[in-house]
Amino acid sequence: MSDGPILSIRGLTKRFGGTVAVQAVAAEIQRGELVSFVGPSGCGKTTLLRLVGGFLRPDAGVVHIESEDITSLPPNLRPTAMVFQNYALFPHLSVAENIGYALTIRHYPKAEITRRVAELLDLVQLQGLGNRRPAQLSGGQQQRVALARALSLQPKVLLLDEPLSNLDAGLRVQMRGEIKRLQQELTLTVVFVTHDQEEAMSLSDRILVMNTGRVLQAGTPAEVYERPASAFVARFIGGANFLEGILGNGHPGPHQVETTAGRLAIRTEVPGLAQGARVHLVIRPEAIRLQPQVNGVGPNRLHGRVEAAMYTGALIRYTVGVGDLSLTVDQADPRHSAAFREGDAVTVLLPDDPHILPAP
């Protein structure tokens, strides 16, 4: 067993005619990691997964599993298994037959297949449903069957292609927990593809954010959320407000940033940025506080007016006008905090530790 990464992707590139779907992607995934490739539709993430699974051949680059080059191997000869978005279950086979299909075509002994299928039905909590057909199951149960079938040959890397996208909101949350449970219980190495940033954040050990065929940033969910490498990443992972300004002196006190909304004091470290540099302050909606408007302003306290308020149950999302800016503000637990109405004058409290990006 190798001590290095279990999966290495090196310079993978795939073109469809004149379109570059995946461009020079490189990544290393450790044994037992759950890594998500996340990005908008058309960013190349599913193409990348199919390259790893052998369903597409790359125009350039290689795929290694445990230092073995598998780039030219077909899917059935790779130590990987894939769960597709539509599950791809055989409708004419029972649940047990679907789960044991790969074992059957590889001529495993019948007793071994029966034992293994029973273990997998227990693992995915579908005991007693082995004789049913897929059409007799709910969407969540069908997804469990697809997972069990993928696990039947004990793959070294499990590939999941947006497996939750066909489920309703409640089932998606439930199945996230099931996937994480299986991954931890079996120490699975999982490559997960999704366009849902919340899904990726809740499941992943690491996230790789993609756009236009490239990986823009890789890191833990906290690293990507708190220190996005670009405006695109900040907008895609969680949403953000951007305040453009000019960086002022930071010695001996906090930096001063002149923005169109006013002067802000920040204590964020800004290595590599000189006084006078144009910057973008990245401020998450939940980091801003609102108070009833009071006379006068202070450090990072601005006058604003509520332009819109959307109640979602867990929070109220406000749009607040501050000068010529519109800021998005999320206020959690609205039952136990002051609610503002459209048109209310408010004091906007901005944090003194925003993430800072150089302005383009």
How are the elements arranged and paired?
Elements: E1 7-16, E2 19-29, E3 34-38, H1 45-53, E4 60-65, E5 68-69, E6 80-83, H2 95-99, H3 101-105, H4 110-123, H5 139-151, E7 157-161, H6 169-186, E8 190-194, H7 197-203, E9 206-211, E10 214-219, H8 221-226, H9 231-236, E11 241-247, E12 255-259, E13 262-266, E14 278-283, E15 289-292, E16 301-311, E17 315-322, E18 325-332, E19 345-349, E20 355-358
Parallel strand pairs: 3-8, 3-9, 6-7, 7-8
Antiparallel strand pairs: 1-2, 1-4, 4-5, 9-10, 11-12, 11-14, 12-13, 14-20, 15-19, 16-17, 16-19, 17-18
Helix pairs in contact: 4-5
Structure description:
By secondary structure, this protein is of the alpha+beta class. Helix content is 23%, strand content 34%. It has 9 helices and 20 strands. It has helices at residues 45-53, 95-99, 101-105, 110-123, 139-151, 169-186, 197-203, 221-226, 231-236; strands spanning 7-16, 19-29, 34-38, 60-65, 68-69, 80-83, 157-161, 190-194, 206-211, 214-219, 241-247, 255-259, 262-266, 278-283, 289-292, 301-311, 315-322, 325-332, 345-349, 355-358. The strands form 4 sheets. Strands 6-7-8-3-9-10 form a 6-stranded mixed β-sheet, with helices on both faces. Strand 4 (60-65) and strand 5 (68-69) form a beta hairpin. The chain is elongated and about 80 Å long. The model has no long low-confidence stretch (mean pLDDT 90).
